[in-house]
Amino acid sequence: MKIFCLSLGCAKNKVDSECLAGELRRAGHELVESPEFAEIGIVNTCGFIRPAVEESIAAILDLEQLKKEGQLKKIGVVGCLVNRYGQDLTAEMSVVDFWAKSEDWASVLTSLESKTVAGRCRSNLPLSSTFTRYLKISEGCDNRCTYCAIPDIRGGLRSLSLDIILKEAQQLVQEGARELCVVGQDLTVYGTDLAGKADLITLLDALESSLPKDIWIRLLYLHPSRVTNKLLERVANGTQILPYLDIPIQHADAKILASMNRGIDPAQLLSIFKTARSIDSTFALRTTCMVGFPGEGNAEFKNLMRFTEEVCFDRLGAFSFFPEEGTNAMQLEGQVSEPVKRRRLKKLLALQEKISLERQQLFLGKTLDVLIEKVDTVYGFAEGRSFREAPEVDGLVEVHGCLNNIKEGDVVRVKVTDAMPHDMVGEVHRG
Ligand code: SF4
Q1: Per-residue model confidence as pLDDT tens digits over 289-340
Q2: Index of the ligand 1 atom closest to the CA of residue 250
Q3: What distance in angstroms lies between residue 195's CA and the mean position of ligand 1's atoms?
Q4: Ligand 1 pocket test: which of 148, 183, 221, 262 has the largest number of ligand atoms within 8 Å of its C-beta?
Q5: Which of 137, 294, 300, 403 could be joined to 334 by an S-S link, Cβ 3.0–4.6 Å?
Q6: Which of 142, 152, 223, 287 to mutate to test the pocket of ligand 1 (most atoms within 8 A of CB)?
């Protein structure tokens, strides 16, 4: 069968979609890049927050329309939305032919009358990058932050074995990957649920000793409460681990951090970033913040602003608190009004825009290795990312100069000639 698979949500869900794609191909189906060419349409949904739920439902309705028009024979809905709302949805959406929870690929194959074969099998989706791939090392989470529905959607922590991860990393490199982005709900707890001594540092050692030396390894989602100096030094001393630290703080006020159940206080948070900068002043620090959490008054918000000013993150993503159904935070006193949330979000992002520009300008005149993702031969420029830009969430580096023989997937040395808050411009440096 010709199957179109739409992958929604986070990088971890993208890996799930690739595992589903691997199972479907192994069962003899063909993955096609758009529903117009397909007989079957599948959406791997996200159910994390309200906007993601709405996006997933809209995608299902789009496939329903194509089925009503006779384009698609069958449609399937899988993933987090099914984990969270499956029972209600199946009653309401009768046009959908099959449903499956996350990672339950066997039932998808059964619905397609295809044989299931034991063993993990992963395969890239059509139109997806081959140079940058996500390496998921665990699923689920035991942290129980009060605003987060993920532990209810994906269950408790389940680390993949070191063998499976190393084998998959090799496979992705053989398929052309130059950058592996290591993901999980929280990388710092890797292996704590496994027998034996495996932890994140053991995994990094194994990746660096088993992969070709030109492969970039990028770490995403490090919960601050378990970021140790030992881990910071391991990242700084890595030969392939990018000096890029994605450490979501969510907030920096003691009362709010406690109410979020983040398991860390502002002083400990500050010391992580101060230590990181003392170890390597060029560390690219990324974080995520939430404004408008219940109980956040002007004083608490000021603490977040002051902390942001003191640390000077390179990248900061921020969003407003949303009282997610089924979370403890939904019941908390002191819910903040939407206009106040909007005002604070605007203020925080405006502050960060200035800080990001200052951090970017530190690289003017310096050279950076850039992984080329696009070469535009018509307008004579290329685009890519350096260690400072993670895929999909950060900016880009625009590359000019002699682009002869430069192709997508190459890593090119670039001299930075201009810097903006999120993007940079540079010239190919043939030094
Ligand atoms: S660490 Fe907190 S925010 Fe992240 S997935 Fe776990 S519970 Fe959710």
Answers
A1: 999 999 999 999 999 999 999 999 999 999 999 999 999 999 999 999 999 9
A2: 3
A3: 23
A4: 148
A5: 294
A6: 223
For the record, the structure tokens of 374 come out as: 């696009």
**What pLDDT, on the 0 to 100 scale, is given for residue 405?**
86
Q: How confident is the model at residue 431 (pLDDT cuts 50, 70, 90)?
A: low
Kindly report the protein residue whose alpha carbon is nearest to atom 2 of ligand 1. 145
Q: What is the mean pLDDT of residues 246-272?
A: 98
* Number of the ligand 1 atom closest to the C-alpha atom of 223: 1
Nearest CA to ligand 1 atom 4: 185
Ligand 1 pocket (Cβ < 6 Å) reads: 141, 143-145, 148, 150-151, 185-186, 223
- Which of the listed residues 83, 145, 220, 328 should we mutate to test ligand 1's pocket, taking the one with most ligand atoms within 8 A of CB? 145
